[in-house]
């Protein structure tokens, strides 16, 4: 997690193109538009204006050319999209509609999409989790470094009981732990071969699909590692989905904050009968799960 988020690493340019193209496709999915190469397919401004309408939740303020033929029409479309984003609070640095239309600078286009991801994906999931923040705190969290750091802090806090995987040096294990914390039926963390990154990555991708989380990173990307920007782009979508899963109220016991007590019953996923134990959601037959045993003993010691 050391890459400068304001720079494009040449080693990761191809990966960022793939991930950012998939992110853009996911946004444009309601329109049935597929973007295979975001550095080449936004040049006429058509998809860019449509992206702006979806992300800003506003219609274009003036007519635009849906089938541009000449460069000036394409540039005007791009200018319109950038104007819509700017009016919605997006801050671009040294980019114009002509820059996008020329398509001579891949890093510039990738920088444009990354700026949108920060605002509408990473920033959006942080806004939901930080609803109680003051206006000054929210303003600070909208800064690129603050938004990504807040997302990483959330991830690390969620898996702090999973040992050294919380440092995200092995992202396959870190993401596996993150999903296990919510859906242990999809990722049996204690059963994973910690030395087989590829198999763990396959489990993670399968879990993404089961949870309807858009798969931006392929198995090899998760197994071999990726740059910060592509990781944060994927993690924002993971958090967006996990935030919809049930959370349990906190209680106070002997001055210690605990999670809700053990509850038996139907977990809100078809056919799965779970025992809910704090933030660990485990099957009733997971009696041999080491973290479950530790949590249970801890609560027993407290007389809870």
Mean pLDDT metric: 80
CATH topology of the largest domain: Actin-binding Protein, T-fimbrin, domain 1
Helix/strand structural class: mainly alpha
- The DSSP helix count reads 12
Task: State Rg.
Answer: 22 Å
Q: CATH-wise, what's the superfamily of the largest domain? A: Calponin-like domain
- In the sheet with the most strands, the strands line up as 3-4-5
Determine and state the CATH class of the largest domain. Mainly Alpha
- The count of domains is 2
Order of helices and strands: HHHHHHHHHHHEEEEEH
What would the principal axes of the Cα set say about the shape?
elongated
Report on the architecture of this protein.
The N terminus is likely disordered. This protein is mainly alpha-helical. It starts with 12 loop residues before the first helix and ends with a helix. Helix 1 packs parallel to helix 11, helix 5 crosses helix 7 and helix 8 packs across helix 9. It contains twelve helices and five strands. It has two domains: 127 residues, Actin-binding Protein, T-fimbrin, domain 1; 106 residues, Actin-binding Protein, T-fimbrin, domain 1. The strands form two sheets. Strands 3-4-5 form a three-stranded antiparallel beta sheet, covered by helices on one side. Strands 1-2 form a two-stranded antiparallel ribbon. It is 50% helix and 7% strand. Strand 4 and strand 5 form a beta hairpin. It is elongated and about 60 Å long.
């Amino acid at each position: 997690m050391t890459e400068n988020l304001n720079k494009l690493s040449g080693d990761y340019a191809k990966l960022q193109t793939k991930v950012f193209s998939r992110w853009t496709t996911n946004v444009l999915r309601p329109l049935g538009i597929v973007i295979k190469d975001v550095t080449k397919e936004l040049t006429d401004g058509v998809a860019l204006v449509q992206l702006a309408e979806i992300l800003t939740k506003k219609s274009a303020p003036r007519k635009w050319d849906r089938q541009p033929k000449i460069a000036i029409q394409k540039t005007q479309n791009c200018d319109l999209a950038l104007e819509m984003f700017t009016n919605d609070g997006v801050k671009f640095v040294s980019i114009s509609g002509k820059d996008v239309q020329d398509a001579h600078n891949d890093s510039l286009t990738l920088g444009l999409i990354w700026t949108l991801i920060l605002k509408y994906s990473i920033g959006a999931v942080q806004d939901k989790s930080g609803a109680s923040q003051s206006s000054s705190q929210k303003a600070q969290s909208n800064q690129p470094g603050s938004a990504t750091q807040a997302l990483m802090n959330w991830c690390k806090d969620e898996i702090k009981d999973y040992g050294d995987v919380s440092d995200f040096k092995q992202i396959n294990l870190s993401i596996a732990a993150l999903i296990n914390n919510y859906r242990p039926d999809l990722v049996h963390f204690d059963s994973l071969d910690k030395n087989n990154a590829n198999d763990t990555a396959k489990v993670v991708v399968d879990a993404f699909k089961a949870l309807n989380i858009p798969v931006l990173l392929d198995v090899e990307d998760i197994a071999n590692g990726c740059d910060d920007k592509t990781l944060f782009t994927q993690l924002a979508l993971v958090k967006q989905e996990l935030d919809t899963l049930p959370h349990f109220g906190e209680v106070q016991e002997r001055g210690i904050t605990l999670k809700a007590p053990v509850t038996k019953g139907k977990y809100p996923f078809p056919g799965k009968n779970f025992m809910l134990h704090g933030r660990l959601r485990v099957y009733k037959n997971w009696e041999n799960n080491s973290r479950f045993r530790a949590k249970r003993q801890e609560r027993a010691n407290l007389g809870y």
